[in-house]
Amino acid sequence: MYTTQGFVLRKYNIEEADRMYIIYTKDYGKKNLFCKGALKIKSKLSPHLAEFADADFDFVKGKSVEKIVGARMEKSFVNIRGDLRKIAIGNFILDAIDNLIKPDHPDREIYILIKKALEIIDGHKDIRKAYFSANIFIWKLLILLGYKPEFDKCAKCGMKLKEPYFDERTGEFFCGECFRRRAGAGSRDGLYREKIPPNPPLQRGGERTPLCRSSLEYLKGNPMAEVNFDEIIFIVKSFMRLHLEKVLKSEVWITKLFDY
């Protein structure tokens, strides 16, 4: 028998009474764990197998699946569970983890990061800051997984970036001259046949604008007194879409709730 701590990322029903749980565990990484009878009213395990809760799990290896045989909820993030908007933000975090991380690759740093992220979301009174914190968590997760961009030099010419422009199609940063050449003269670059679509956080008066330097410094891990929330959220979501090659369903839900 194996014992560990973890967070339920997702669950789905199997037949009439059973359920499969996708759990990120402290010691074994992401696991797909089967729970027999979880849908029964008298199930002793299912109350402890909830999202937005830190729990202890006991599981054993069966012939075809690994089975949960014990569960004890240690901490429930009640402020998330009691607020529809925080549920949406929490689901965004769990959905990102489930999609970005492969099973059976343990990393305690990721487990600690998940716990800290849920604690921060649970404690936030400002819902906009809670959503921003969720995006920063996803950014840190992407960095841990090795998806770190080049911040200091233009991805095309290699010059030091004074006024960085972000290309959401490639996840790269460019100087103004190279960015405008790519966006407006795609045939010369051989990359795009159409202009890069404008995005509200990065345009003014119909023209694409450089990033705030504070946004870039913040993403590099340097604390800043003031940051542009919208710019950072846009960059993080663009990076995640790029590496997943899709938009998460939880992100669509957030867009409907918050108009982000």
Automatic annotation (TrEMBL):
User: What's the source species' lineage?
Assistant: Bacteria, Candidatus Falkowiibacteriota
Cross-referenced SUPFAM superfamilies, in alphabetical order? ArfGap/RecO-like zinc finger, Nucleic acid-binding proteins
Q: Which gene encodes it?
A: recO
Q: Which NCBIfam families match?
A: reco (TIGR00613)
**Its function?**
Involved in DNA repair and RecF pathway recombination.
Domain DNA replication/recombination mediator RecO N-terminal: where?
Answer: 2-77
Protein's name in the database: DNA repair protein RecO
**Gene3D superfamilies referenced in this protein's UniProt entry, alphabetically:** Nucleic acid-binding proteins (2.40.50.140), Recombination protein O, C-terminal domain (1.20.1440.120)
**Any one GO biological process:** DNA recombination
